C-alpha cells in the first residue's frame, strides 16, 4: 500500500530500518541533553524505524506462508517473553528510585538495547496479527487496517506532544480511544478460523485464551510505573503508546479469536468432513480425466468412500454379462464381499425383515446379527447408473449399527456417480478400440481386393475394353480378370463371392489363384468352371458360393466362347438390341454330386462390328433407391443402348452416372463391377 | 430398414415356413434359427412358402444351402413354393432348380412329400 508507493524492496526496508536505528542510537548517546528539538528528531526517526521494521516483518510472513497456529504460538512466546521481562523488572528492580538513561553511558546503551529488543518483539506481534487479518479475506479490507494504523500513529505522536504541553491530553485520549474502536472493528475479521480442522480449533481455543489474558496483563503491568516503562516512556513516548495499543490489540484480538473458535467448535466436525469430501471429489475429477483403467479408479473410489463416510469397508460391483463382479475392494475379503453382493443384486436381501430404510433411491440397510453372516451391521449400496441402467453398485459397510445419515448417503451417491462416469468412459474407450480394429480389418480386406484386380486392361488391336470396380462400404467379393492365353486369345473372368468382409476377400484371392492356373491349362470355359467348382466345393463353407462367367475371345475372328456358373447374364449389345445370354450352369460351390458338370454348357457367339459384350455383377441391377426398388435390367439396357456408339469407357461412365442418380438417396450396399468389351473390327469387309 | 418375418405351421408331417419381406445378410439369422429349431425337434420335411418374400440376397440363399444336406440325410428335403418371378429369377440364374424342387402351389409340394413315403 503506502510502502508499495515508496517502492522499497524487502532488503532496503531492513537496511533503512537498521540505519535509522543506528542514527537514533548515536543521537541518543551523543545528545543526551533533553531538548524539544532532539525529542522530535528522535521520535520521527523512531516511528520511521518502527514502520519500516513492521513492514519488513509483515512481508516476510506473507512470503513464507506460515501455518496460522504456529504463528500464533510464536507471537504467544513473544508475548510471554515481554510478560516475563515486565514482571521481573517490576519485582526485582526497585522502582522507587527514578531511573534515567541519561545517568551514564553504560545504562544508556543498556536501555537502548532493551528498547530495540522491545520494538522488535512488539512489531513481530503486530505483524502476526496483521497477517492473520488479511488471511482468507475475499474483499479488500486494507483501508480499515490502514486507518487504524494512522490513528495509532496519531495517538503515538500526540503522546509525544503531551510531554511538551500537558494540556493537550484530550487529543491523545481521543486518538487513543478511536484507535481502540478501530482495533475492535478490525479484530472481528477472523474468518480463517473456519478453515481450521477440529483439532486445530481446540488447540487454538487453548492458546487464544492464554494469549488474551497475557496481553491484557502486559498492558496492565506497563501502565504501572515499572522499571521497563521507566526506560521506554521517557525515551520514546510514541513507542510507549504503540506498545500499549498493540498489547490492547492482542488482548482484544485473541479474546475474539477465543470466542469465535468456541462457537465454531460444534460445527467443526461437519466442516471437516465437507472439506475432505470436496477435496476428494476434486481429486476424483482429476483422476477421471487421466485414468483410462477402471481398476485404478475403483481402488481410489473405495478408499475415499471409507475415509469420507467413516466406514469399515467398501467395494465396487461392475456389471459384466448380466452378472455383477467385484471390481475393487478395500478392507474386506473377496468371498465375503461376493456373498453380500449376491444378496444385494439378487434382491434376496429384501426378503429379510431387517431393512431399515430406503432413502434417495439408494439401498440402505441395518441388520440384526447373522443377517449377512458377516461382521457388518449397516450397509449402503449406491447404484451406478449409466444411460438409465444399473451398471454396478458402490457398497460400503460398518461393523457398528450406527445408521448412515443423509450426509453419508449423499457422499456415497456422488462417489457412485463418479464411478459411473468413469465406467462409461472406460467402456467407450474399449468400444472405440474394437471399432478401430474392425476398420483396420476392413482396410486390409479392401487392399486385398484392389491388389487382386488387374491394374490395367489389356491392349488388343481389334477390341476396346473398359473395366470398372466400385467397392461398397462393406467389402464384398467381386472379381474380374483378363488372361493373355496366346497372341490372339484373350481369356476373361468375372466372379462374385457370396458374403462380405474379410472372408469374402480371402475367397476372392483363392478364386483368382484358381482361374490364373486353370486358364493356362484348359481351353474350354465349361471345363475350367467345372474344375473350379471341384476345388471350391472343398474350401467354401456350406452356405457360401461363387458365381462366375469365364470366356475366351479370339481377337482375330471375333469368336467368343463362354460359360456361366450361376452368374448374372452376359449382355450382348448387337444391332441396337440388348440380349441377355444365360447358358445353363450352377453357381460354384453349390453342388458336389456331379450335377455341376451336367448342368454347365458352353456358348459360342460371333461378334460383329461395334458389338458390345457387357459383364457385370448384381451390384448394378440390385442398386436400390429410397423406396427399395431395384435399378433393374430395363434402365441398365436403355442407358447402354443410348450410348452404344460411344467408346466403352464413356459407356461405363454413363452407366455409373445413371445408377448413382437412381440410388442417390440410399447407401451402396454391394460392390459394383462392370466390364465392357467392344468389337472394333469389321469382319464382313474382310470376308468381302 | 427392410422388414422380414418368418412363421411356421405344419400340414401333417410337413412343416411349412412362410417368409415375408426381405431376406438378406441382416435377416438371415432369423431363418437360420427357425431351421435349427426344426432340426432339433427332428422335423426334416420342409416346404418354404415364398409368397410374400420380395427380395433374397446371396446370404439368404446360403441359408438353404446350409441346411438342405441335413434334411436330405434324414429322408427329408427343402422344397420351394409360390415364388414371385423376381425371386425365382435369382434362384434360376444360380441353377437352384437343378438342385431343389420348386412348385407354384404349396399343396403340390406337400403332396410330393406324401408320395415319397
Write up this protein.
The complex is a heterodimer of chains A (688) and B (117). By secondary structure, chain A is α+β, with helices and mostly antiparallel strands. Chain A has three domains: 2-273, no CATH class; 291-431, 2-Layer Sandwich (Beta-Lactamase); 455-687, PPM-type phosphatase domain (Phosphatase 2c, domain 1). In chain A, 57% of the residues lie in helices and 17% in strands. Chain A has helices spanning 2-6, 10-30, 36-64, 68-92, 105-134, 142-164, 169-187, 198-223, 227-235, 237-290, 294-309, 334-345, 406-452, 501-521, 525-539, 595-599, 618-621, 632-642, 648-662, 683-687; strands at residues 313-320, 323-330, 357-359, 362-366, 378-386, 389-398, 463-470, 477-486, 489-497, 546-554, 559-565, 570-574, 577-581, 602-606, 612-616, 672-679. A six-stranded antiparallel sheet of chain A has the order 2-1-6-5-4-3, with helices on both faces. In chain A, helix 9 crosses helix 10. Residues 1-5 and 350-360 of chain A have low confidence and may be disordered. Chain B is α/β, with parallel strands linked by helices and 117 residues long. Chain B has one domain (4-116): Transcription Regulator spoIIAA (2-Layer Sandwich). Chain B is 43% helix and 32% strand. Chain B is built from four helices and five strands, in the order ββαβαβαβα. In chain B, helix 1 links the parallel strand 2 (14-23) and strand 3 (45-56). In chain B, helix 1 (28-40) packs parallel to helix 2. The longest helix of chain B has 16 residues, at 58-73. At the A-B interface, loops of A face helix 2 and helix 3 of B.
Amino acid at each position: 500500500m503506502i510502502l508499495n508507493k515508496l517502492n522499497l524492496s524487502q532488503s532496503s526496508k531492513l537496511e533503512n530500518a537498521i540505519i535509522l536505528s543506528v542514527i537514533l542510537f548515536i543521537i541518543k548517546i551523543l545528545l543526551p541533553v533533553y531538548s524539544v528539538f532532539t525529542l522530535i528528531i528522535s521520535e520521527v526517526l523512531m516511528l520511521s524505524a518502527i514502520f519500516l521494521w513492521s513492514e519488513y516483518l509483515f512481508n516476510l510472513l506473507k512470503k513464507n506462508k506460515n501455518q496460522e497456529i504456529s504463528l500464533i504460538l510464536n507471537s504467544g512466546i513473544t508475548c510471554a517473553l515481554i510478560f516475563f521481562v515486565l514482571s521481573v523488572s517490576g519485582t526485582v528492580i526497585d522502582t522507587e528510585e527514578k531511573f534515567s538513561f541519561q545517568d551514564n553511558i553504560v545504562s544508556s546503551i543498556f536501555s537502548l538495547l532493551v528498547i530495540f529488543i522491545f520494538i522488535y518483539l512488539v512489531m513481530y506481534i503486530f505483524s502476526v496479527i496483521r497477517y492473520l487479518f488479511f488471511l482468507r479475506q475475499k474483499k479488500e479490507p486494507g483501508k480499515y487496517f490502514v486507518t487504524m494504523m494512522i490513528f495509532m500513529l496519531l495517538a503515538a505522536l500526540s503522546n509525544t506532544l503531551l510531554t511538551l504541553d500537558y494540556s493537550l491530553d484530550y487529543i491523545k485520549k481521543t486518538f487513543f480511544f478511536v484507535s481502540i474502536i478501530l482495533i475492535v472493528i478490525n479484530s472481528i475479521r477472523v474468518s480463517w478460523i473456519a478453515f481450521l480442522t477440529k483439532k486445530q480449533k481446540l488447540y487454538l481455543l487453548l492458546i487464544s485464551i492464554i494469549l488474551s489474558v497475557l496481553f491484557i496483563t502486559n498492558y496492565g503491568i506497563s501502565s504501572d510505573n515499572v522499571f521497563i516503562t521507566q526506560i521506554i516512556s521517557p525515551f520514546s513516548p510514541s513507542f510507549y503508546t504503540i506498545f500499549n495499543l498493540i498489547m490492547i490489540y492482542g488482548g482484544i484480538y485473541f479474546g475474539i479469536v477465543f470466542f469465535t473458535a468456541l462457537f465454531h467448535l460444534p460445527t467443526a466436525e461437519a466442516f471437516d468432513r465437507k472439506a475432505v469430501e470436496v477435496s476428494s471429489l476434486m481429486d476424483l475429477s482429476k483422476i477421471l480425466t487421466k485414468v483410462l483403467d477402471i481398476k485404478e479408479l475403483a481402488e481410489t473410489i473405495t478408499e475415499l468412500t471409507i475415509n469420507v463416510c467413516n466406514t469399515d469397508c467398501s467395494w465396487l460391483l461392475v456389471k459384466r454379462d448380466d452378472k455383477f463382479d467385484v471390481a475393487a475392494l478395500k478392507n474386506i475379503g473377496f468371498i465375503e464381499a461376493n456373498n453380500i453382493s449376491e444378496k444385494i443384486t439378487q434382491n434376496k436381501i429384501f426378503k429379510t425383515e431387517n431393512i431399515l430404510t430406503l432413502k434417495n433411491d439408494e439401498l440402505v440397510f441395518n441388520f440384526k446379527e447373522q443377517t449377512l453372516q458377516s461382521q457388518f451391521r449397516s450397509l449402503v449400496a449406491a447404484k451406478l447408473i449409466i444411460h438409465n441402467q444399473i451398471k454396478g453398485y458402490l457398497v460400503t459397510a460398518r461393523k457398528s449399527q450406527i445408521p448412515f445419515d443423509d450426509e453419508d448417503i449423499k457422499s456415497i451417491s456422488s462417489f457412485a456417480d463418479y464411478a459411473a462416469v468413469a465406467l462409461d468412459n472406460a467402456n467407450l474407450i474399449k468400444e472405440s478400440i474394437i471399432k478401430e480394429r474392425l476398420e483396420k480389418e476392413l482396410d486390409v480386406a479392401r487392399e486385398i481386393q484392389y491388389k487382386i484386380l488387374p491394374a490395367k486392361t489389356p491392349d488388343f488391336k481389334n477390341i476396346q475394353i473398359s473395366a470398372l470396380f466400385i467397392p461398397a462400404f462393406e467389402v464384398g467379393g467381386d472379381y474380374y480378370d483378363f488372361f493373355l492365353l496366346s497372341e490372339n486369345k484373350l481369356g476373361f473372368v468375372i466372379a462374385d463371392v457370396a458374403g462380405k468382409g474379410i472372408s469374402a476377400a480371402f475367397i476372392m484371392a483363392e478364386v483368382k489363384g484358381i482361374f490364373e492356373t486353370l486358364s493356362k491349362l484348359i481351353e474350354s470355359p465349361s471345363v475350367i468352371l467345372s474344375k473350379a467348382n471341384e476345388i471350391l466345393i472343398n474350401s467354401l463353407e456350406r452356405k457360401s458360393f461363387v458365381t462366375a462367367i469365364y470366356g475366351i475371345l479370339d481377337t482375330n475372328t471375333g469368336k467368343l466362347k463362354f460359360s456361366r456358373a450361376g452368374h448374372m447374364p452376359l449382355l450382348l449389345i448387337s444391332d441396337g438390341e440388348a440380349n441377355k445370354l444365360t447358358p445353363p450352369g450352377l453357381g460354384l460351390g453349390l453342388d458336389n454330386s456331379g450335377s455341376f458338370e451336367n448342368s454347365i454348357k458352353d456358348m459360342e457367339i460371333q461378334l460383329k462390328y461395334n458389338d458390345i459384350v457387357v459383364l457385370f455383377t448384381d451390384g448394378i441391377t440390385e442398386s436400390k433407391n429410397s423406396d427399395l426398388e431395384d435399378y433393374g435390367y430395363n434402365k441398365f439396357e436403355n442407358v447402354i443402348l443410348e450410348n452404344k456408339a460411344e467408346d466403352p469407357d464413356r459407356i461405363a461412365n454413363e452407366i455409373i452416372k445413371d445408377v448413382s442418380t437412381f440410388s442417390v438417396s440410399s447407401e451402396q450396399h454391394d460392390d459394383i463391377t462392370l466390364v465392357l468389351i467392344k468389337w472394333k473390327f469389321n469382319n464382313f469387309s474382310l470376308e468381302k | 430398414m427392410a422388414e422380414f418375418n418368418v412363421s411356421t405351421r405344419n400340414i401333417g408331417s410337413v412343416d411349412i415356413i412362410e417368409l415375408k419381406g426381405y431376406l438378406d445378410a441382416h435377416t438371415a439369422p432369423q431363418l437360420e434359427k427357425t431351421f435349427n429349431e426344426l432340426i432339433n425337434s427332428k422335423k426334416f420335411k420342409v416346404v418354404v412358402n415364398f409368397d410374400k418374400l420380395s427380395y433374397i440376397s446371396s446370404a439368404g440363399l446360403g441359408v438353404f444351402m446350409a441346411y438342405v444336406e441335413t434334411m436330405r440325410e434324414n429322408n427329408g428335403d427343402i422344397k420351394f413354393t409360390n415364388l414371385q418371378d423376381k425371386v425365382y429369377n435369382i434362384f434360376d440364374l444360380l441353377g437352384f432348380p437343378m438342385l431343389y424342387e420348386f412348385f407354384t402351389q404349396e399343396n403340390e409340394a406337400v403332396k410330393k412329400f406324401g408320395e415319397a413315403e
